[in-house]
């Protein structure tokens, strides 16, 4: 006969007392500009998926790419200086 048991870790894995650490919150804060810039780029690209991009669309995508690259460069510079692990 097989016994049915619960896996305690899986049940309590999402308990309220398990909050992100300060280091995890710092890492999220460091990555947030790049995440938001990436979302802007995807929005601009999605808009042009079902039509021919206008000059305004092309400029919007180009600006979004620049914002993403700037955010990634800033993130890399902060990590390189030792701002986050």
From TrEMBL:
InterPro entries the record matches: DUF6284
Pfam family, one: DUF6284
Protein name as catalogued: DUF6284 family protein
Species of origin: Streptomyces hokutonensis
